[in-house]
Amino acid sequence: MQKNIVFIVGVMMVSCGKTLPVIAPDVITEKTLHDTDDPAIWINPNDASKSIVFGTDKETDGAIYAFDLDGKIIENKTIRGLKRPNNVDLEYGFKLNDSIKVDVIAFTERERQQIRLFSVPDMKPLDNGGFKVFEDATLPEYKLPMGIAIYKSPRTKKVYAIVGRKSGPKNGYLYQYEFVSDSLGVHANLVRKFGEFSEKKEIEAIAVDDKNGIVYYSDEGHGIRKYYAEPSKGDKQIYCFGGEFFKEDIEGIAIAHYQNNSFLIVSNQQAGTFNVFDLKTNAFIKEINLGTTETDGCDLTTVALGDSFPNGLFVSMNNDKTFFYHDLKKLGLLE
Length: 335
Known about the structure:
Blueprint: E1 12-15, E2 18-21, E3 27-28, E4 36-42, E5 52-57, E6 62-67, E7 79-82, E8 85-96, E9 100-109, E10 114-120, E11 131-132, E12 145-152, E13 159-165, E14 171-182, E15 185-196, E16 203-209, E17 214-219, E18 223-228, E19 239-241, E20 250-257, E21 262-268, E22 273-278, E23 284-288, E24 298-301, E25 313-318, E26 322-327
Antiparallel strand pairs: 1-2, 3-26, 4-5, 5-6, 6-7, 8-9, 9-10, 10-11, 12-13, 13-14, 14-15, 16-17, 17-18, 18-19, 20-21, 21-22, 22-23, 24-25, 25-26
GO molecular function: inositol hexakisphosphate 3-phosphatase activity
Protein name: Phytase
InterPro entries: 6-blade_b-propeller_TolB-like (IPR011042), B-propeller_Phytase (IPR003431)
């Protein structure tokens, strides 16, 4: 299988007094037109080697790009004509009309002040043009969605979108919407407002651990905040941690579950590295350099994706309009 293989030679990253060698990517995607930001990985249930990486191109004339595992753009799966799509997430088995189950991607469309919902892999819109968010916000910047993560409740099977924004109040920065399907179509119903904000920078990166029902988000100038994703468990913060390990902005979050260990991987944006934390204890484990710069978003899967990525895949945004692919084993999580 032909890949866009890139060799990064002689590059070292100095961080926290250490010199970190670059872990070279296996694949670098074809370039988007404008400004990459956040990826999401869809695993093809029939043939994992034909899985798709979706990535946002964050501009007024933006798009959700679809890439194959060689990093090539899949044009007939790419969604164009969007108004600044920012972050994207994915969930499996959303129930339509209590009968049909579909996989879905959801993403924010900042300039239209809405979120979008499409089925995968046929890429059909399920939202009648979009769901407006933060409609009760009083300030213009409070209405501009940025981060998004989807949560599927293990108990109720309900599917939610947890949405962040360009700016917001000290409390209730995040809104959580339930996707509901009925005979009239799909709706996004607001179920709660939650989440503290330090007011230092902004909140963009959000990730949900479906397995344990926990939502993590980056309060960029402060720390990683941790809440219950299940609305019935309340809005009290569980923990805030990790801020001392970042040079400046705390950004993209990815979660890796293995049989005996689980990890949180978070972009240390201005350092050009990623910090790895133990998911159970929140303890810092190590810092790694994957060769990306100014990384906003990242995503991963521990599932083998054919011969190309037999140990799973880690995808991260690079600021040259590309995404980097690494075989997950290269991150050394189980060393």
